[in-house]
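In this supplementary section we document a worked example of the pipeline. Step one takes a protein sequence of length 253 as its only input; no multiple sequence alignment statistics are reported here. Step two produces a three-dimensional model, which step three serialises into structure tokens for compact storage. The input and output of this example are shown verbatim.
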Amino acid sequence: MNRKSHSGPRPHIIYGAHPVIETIKAGRRQVFEVMTVQGSAAHKNAREILSNENIHFRAVSQSDMLSLCGPAQHQGIAARVGPFPYLELEDMQESLSQSDGVVLVLDEIQDPQNLGGILRSAECFGVKAVVLSKDRSAAVTASAEKASAGASAHIPVCQVGNLARAIEKLKETGFWVYGAHCEDGENLYTASLKGKIAFAVGSEGKGVRRLTREKCDVLVNIPTCGKIQSLNVTSATTVLLAEVYRRSNFQPC
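The serialised model returned by step three reads:
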């Protein structure tokens, strides 16, 4: 529900055209007000988009926007919003059990830019949920939301206290868990990717941790032929998701 007042949860700042507009479209989060730099293209566009929305709108100076967002690429627009709407994995188990699809399990992804890029790819390829741990992982911050180009507003994200237990719950719901591993495992392009699939992907420095790998049903790798031995985690995740989508005969989400 959108509100004009600042009562209730402490507002957070998000910035950038796509994160702000997609957050409004998704309707999953309180939007207290939208701010644009006076005279900017974003100011004109926002006035048109928000004309039918019950959201407080005001123009600010460039220096005011800088104090709100810091040196980030805000594109002349920011918003005060409620906390990011994380979900509980338990609350999603019924919907996850109803049909085939893909869930992403992020094992200590600590770079907000990587997290945002992963969320963008996940939303583009119809991922049903993204699971990340509460500790030693990047949260869905304004920086991650900007990197996601607004995708974070639409995709369900679950924060869990114990990633290994979350994997067990996914297995109980019928998911087959694939661990992405650049050194070992089956070739992604020959692996059986059917039914309910969960991909576990790890940080660039460590990859998928040993405990997480041990919880996976299968390890897979992405074959490459260049002098650089592996893809970064965002690119690798995109390849994994694109391959599942290709095998689904490009059925719409």
